[in-house]
Specification:
The structure is a single chain. The chain is globular, with a radius of gyration of 14 Å. The chain is α+β, with helices and mostly antiparallel strands. It is built from four helices and five strands. The strands form two sheets. Strands 2-3-4 form a three-stranded antiparallel β-sheet. Strands 1-5 form a two-stranded antiparallel sheet. Bound molecules: iron/sulfur cluster (SF4). Iron/sulfur cluster binds next to helix 1. Iron/sulfur cluster (SF4) binds next to helix 1.
């Protein structure tokens, strides 16, 4: 892994895995809980400190834990991942998702 590389992973922006008890984790490889669907809104879960930290690490290439050895997402450049994330937010601006609460 070089200094300009990171995982080509959009999961922390797009997905959350809901466990049997309502806990939400970022993917099937990481067990850090972002929140719980019985107690938190989707906004609270995706803006939780561990969610923001995982996204920061992916965007900076400061990978740790499961992301270092992830078998699901290939390596890419930081610039490429940043461009993909920006494209998501451009698309969501055209089709905003409203919080039903
Ligand atoms: S472990 Fe893999 S799938 Fe999970 S957030 Fe990290 S890179 Fe993405």
């Amino acid at each position: 892994m070089t200094a300009n590389e990171t995982r080509d992973c959009l999961d922390p922006w797009l997905n959350g895995f809901i466990q049997y008890n309502g806990d939400v984790v970022p993917c099937c490889y990481i067990r850090v809980v972002w929140g719980n669907v019985h107690r938190n809104t989707a906004h609270e879960i995706f803006e939780s400190e561990p969610a923001r930290e995982l996204r920061r690490r992916l965007l900076s290439g400061e990978l740790e834990g499961a992301c270092v050895f992830c078998p699901f997402r290939p390596m890419t450049t930081i610039a490429t991942l940043r461009a993909r994330v920006e494209k998501i937010f451009d698309a969501s601006a055209e089709h905003p998702v409203e919080d039903p609460r």
